[in-house]
Amino acid sequence: MVQTPNKQLVLLKHILRGYPVAGEHIDVQESSIDLEAPLKEDQALLKVHTISIDPFLRGPMKGVDAGGYFPPFDVGQTMYGYTISTVIKSNIDKFKQGDVVIGITNLEEYAVISSSHPFFSFCIVRNDIKDSGLPLSYYVGVLGMPGLTAYFGFLEVGKPKKGETLFVSAAAGAVGQIVGQIGKILGLRVIGSAGTDEKIAYLKQIGFDAVFNYKKTNNMSEKLAELAPEGIDVYFDNVGGETLEAVLNNVNRFARIAVCGMVSTYNAEKDIGVHNLMNIVPKHAKLEGFAVSDYFHLEEQFTKDVVQWLKEGKLTYRESVAENIDEAAQALVDVMYGNNSGKQIIRVSDPSF
Amino acid sequence: MVQTPNKQLVLLKHILRGYPVAGEHIDVQESSIDLEAPLKEDQALLKVHTISIDPFLRGPMKGVDAGGYFPPFDVGQTMYGYTISTVIKSNIDKFKQGDVVIGITNLEEYAVISSSHPFFSFCIVRNDIKDSGLPLSYYVGVLGMPGLTAYFGFLEVGKPKKGETLFVSAAAGAVGQIVGQIGKILGLRVIGSAGTDEKIAYLKQIGFDAVFNYKKTNNMSEKLAELAPEGIDVYFDNVGGETLEAVLNNVNRFARIAVCGMVSTYNAEKDIGVHNLMNIVPKHAKLEGFAVSDYFHLEEQFTKDVVQWLKEGKLTYRESVAENIDEAAQALVDVMYGNNSGKQIIRVSDPSF
User: Fold this and answer.
1) Stretch(es) of chain B classified as CATH 3.90.180.10
2) Residues of A in contact with B289 (CB under 8 A)
3) Which of A77, A301, B113, B330 has the most CB atoms less than 10 A away?
4) What is chain A's pLDDT, residue by residue, as a tens digit (353 residues)?
C-alpha cells in the first residue's frame, strides 16, 4: 500500500459574516491517498490539473442553508468547486482512463467522484479540449461557468440592444470582463467599475468606453450620471449594495438589471440594504436574478460564439494563475478582497496531453 | 362679478419624511371663483363631482424631484390629482358643456383646465359613463387608474398562471382588492395582508384563500412560509420594505414581483433598505416596476373585462367615501396610515345626469 501525498483545500471553521482568513477559516492541508486501492463500483479517481477559485465558494463557507445554492461545506472536510482533471481509473461507464473531466469535485490533487453524488451531473467528459489550442484553464473561465454566466446573463436577462448603454461592476473579474467585451461586440456603449487602477487600465485596454475606480469615487451616483449622461439601459450586477443604489438613480425607462451576484454583501459585517428600490417603479425597470444552471442546455451556442470571438481576437481573457495548490486558500481570500486580476486559477498539475 | 366659494386642497408645507398632518402640511381652504368670468382661449371650466385620494399624492408633497413621477406641488398652491367632473363652459374644442371629464385637475370644487398644461393629456371626455349603471366613483377606482394599475400590473408584469400562488400586500386597498380577485378569477391561490382585522374580514369575504394582519404578525417571513407552503410565484407589491424582504425569503424559482408602489417607505422617517435582494439570484426571480401610464393604450380590453366581472358579481369593490371636500386633507392622511377601507373617494358635488 503506497500512500501518495494529496493536498486539499479544507474548511476549518464556518464564517457567517466578514472576510475569511487563510489558516483560520480555510487552509490547504496535506492528506494522502493510495492510488492503487480499489474503487467502489460507482467511483472514478481523477488527477486534478486546475482548480477554479470562484466567488460563489464564499456561500457554503457560511455554514447555513443558502436557499437553492450549494449546501454548506462541512467543518474539517475538503471544499468542493470547479476543477479540470484527467481520469486515472474508473468504475463508471462514461468515464474512461485518460478522459478529461470538467466539473465540480473536491478541491484537492486527487479527487474521487461518485456517480451517486448530487454534484455528479456537473461532471462532464470533454476530450475535445485536448486539441482546442486554447489554454486548459479557459474551460473553467471564459469557456466555462463564468463564461456561460456572462454570456447568458447578459444576452438572456440583460437583453442588450445596439446603441444602448451598459454598465458592468467588478468589470475586470472573471465574468465582468466578458460581459463588457460582448457589449462592445454588440455595439453598446460600455462603462465599467473596478477596485484598482491597474484593473481600470486593463478595462481601457480591452475597449471599455468609460471606467472608474469605485474605491476612489466619493459619489458613485454622480459618477455614473457623468459617465452615462444618457442613462443606463443594462446593468450587469456583480456586486449589489451601494453600486446597485447608484445605478438605480441612473436607470432609463425599461432598464434591465441582470443580477449575477452581490459580492459586496458576501463578506459584509452587516447586511447592506438597498434603499432606493422604489426607483424601478416610475422607470418600469427590472431586476432579474439568474443562475448559470438555467442555461446549461444552451452551451453549444455559447461555445461556438465565444471560441470564434477568442480566435478572431475580439475577446481577450485575463487570468490570475497561482502556480501551486498551496496558494489556494490565500487565493480565495484574495478573490473576496478583489486583489486578484481577472479569473483566479490554481494550477495543480500539468496534463499529459 | 359674482364670486362663488371654491374650496381647494392646498399644500401648506413640503414634507420630505414622516407622516403629513392635516392643517400643518395640507389643508382645505376656501377661495372663490367668478364662474361668469371669460376663459382664455385654451381653457375649460369644470365642476368637480369626485376627488380621488391616492397614495401617489404623497410623492409631490415631498418637494423634491421624484425622477419621472409627478413634479412637486408648490407651497400655497392647490394640489392636483384624479377627479371626475362636468364641463360648465369651454373654449377647448373637444370639451363641450355638459361633458363628463375624467382626469388630473386641481383638487377643488371648480377647476379650470388648460390645453397647454402638461397634464391636459390625462383629461378625457367620458360621456359613456353617464349611462353605465355603475357608481360614478368607480371611474377613478376599479374602472379608473387603480383598476388599470391592478389589471395590467398583475397580468402583464405578474404573468399569473392558473394554480400558482399569489401574494398581495395592502390587499384591501384601492388596487390590492382588485388584484386578489382577478387572481381568484384566473384560478390562483391568493394570499393577502392588511393592517386591520376589519380589512382581513373583508378579504375573506371576497374570496382570498389566506389572509393575515401584518400589524399583529411578529415574523412575516415565517407567516408567509406557513400560508404559502408551496412558495410564492407572484407577488404584487404595494408596500416594499419588510414585507418585500419576507416575500424574498419565500419566492419560488422564476417568481415575478410586480412592484406597484412601496407605501411603507413613503412616510418613513428613515429609508428602509431591502437586505436580502441576493435571494433573487438562486431563484431566478424578478422584480419589475411599472407605471399605469405604460398601459393607457390597452384601456379598452381592461374596461371590457372589468365591467363584465363587476356585472357578473365576480368582482366587488369597496370604497371609503368622504361626503364633503372639507374632509379631503384628513382623508389623505388616513390613506397614508391605512385607516381607510378600500378606495378613498371624496364626494364633492352630485352630477346632474
Assistant:
1) 3-140+317-347
2) 278-286
3) B113
4) 799 999 999 999 999 999 999 999 999 999 999 999 999 999 999 999 999 999 999 999 999 876 657 889 999 999 999 999 999 999 999 999 999 999 999 999 999 999 999 899 999 999 999 999 999 999 999 999 999 999 999 999 999 999 999 999 999 999 999 999 999 999 999 999 999 999 999 999 999 999 999 999 999 999 999 999 999 999 999 999 999 999 999 999 999 999 999 988 888 887 779 999 999 999 999 999 998 888 888 889 999 999 999 999 999 999 999 999 999 999 999 999 999 889 999 999 999 88
Region label for B78, one of left (φ > 0), alpha (ψ between -120 and 50) or beta (otherwise): beta
Residues forming a β-bridge with B289: B259
Q: Given CB atoms, is A65 within the 8 Å cutoff of chain B? A: no
* Cβ distance of A291 and B272 shorter than 8 Å: no
Name which of B249, B265, B275 is nearest A278 (Cβ-Cβ): B265
A62 touches chain B (CB under 8 A): no
CA–CA separation, B260 vs A77, rounded Å?
47
- Give the angle subtended at the CA of A93 by the CAs of A89 and A99, to the nearest 5°: 50
Please tell me which residue of chain A has the smallest CA distance to B244.
A277
The domain over range A3-141+319-347 is classified in CATH as 3.90.180.10: yes
- Closest residue in B to A266 (Cα) is B278
Instruction: Tell the CATH topology of A145-293.
Output: Rossmann fold (3.40.50)
Asked if the C-beta of B284 comes within 8 angstroms of chain A's C-beta atoms, the answer is yes
Give domain B3-140+317-347's CATH superfamily. Answer: Medium-chain alcohol dehydrogenases, catalytic domain (3.90.180.10)
Q: How far apart are CA B72 and CA B62, in angstroms?
A: 7
Provide the 10 A C-beta neighbour count for residue B254. Answer: 14
ipTM for the complex shown: 0.91
How many Cβ pairs closer than 8 A exist between chain A and B? Answer: 113
C-alpha to C-alpha distance for B297 and B305, rounded to whole angstroms: 15
Q: Is B242 in CB contact (< 8 Å) with chain A? A: no
Kindly determine whether residue A67 and residue B265, on different chains, have CB atoms separated by under 8 Å: no
